[in-house]
Amino acid sequence: MVLVQTDGLDVNEVPDGYVVYQPVQDRVHYLNATAAVIFEYCDGLQSADEIVAQVATAFELPETRQDEIRACLDNLVKEGLVAPRA
């Protein structure tokens, strides 16, 4: 499953991550630095597995921590900030 950022989001960088506004749902999300990096990797070119592996490499995390990255990615999908590419 290749993931892409959802259209129509208003993304603003702040010192400790991103503030993302969803106008359609009138919701604001605060992404910490790690979640912001994961969000950036959702460029429509990479699968969820590739994103998890790249983030783990970027932060020099052992494989045992990849479940945490996957949980964050799943939460971004659940919140509607990223979605499978159509």
Keywords:
86 residues; alpha+beta; Outer Surface Protein A, domain 3; 38% helix; globular
Q: Can you walk through the features of this model?
A:
The protein is 38% helix and 34% strand. The protein is an alpha+beta fold. The protein has one domain (2-84): Outer Surface Protein A, domain 3. The strands form 2 sheets. A 3-stranded antiparallel sheet has the order 5-1-6. A hairpin with a 2-residue loop joins strand 2 and strand 3 (17-22). Helix 2 crosses helix 3 (66-78).
Layout of secondary structure:
Elements: E1 2-5, E2 10-14, E3 17-22, E4 27-32, H1 33-41, E5 43-47, H2 48-58, H3 66-78, E6 82-84
Antiparallel strand pairs: 1-5, 1-6, 2-3, 3-4
Q: How many helices?
A: 3
Give the structural class: alpha+beta
Please give the alpha-carbon distance between the first and last residues: 10 Å
Helix content: 25-40%
Mean pLDDT: 95
Share in β-strands: 25-35%
CATH architecture: Alpha-Beta Complex
Question: According to CATH, what is the class?
Answer: Alpha Beta
**CATH fold-level label:** Outer Surface Protein A, domain 3
Briefly summarize what is shown.
This protein is α+β, with helices and mostly antiparallel strands and 86 residues long.
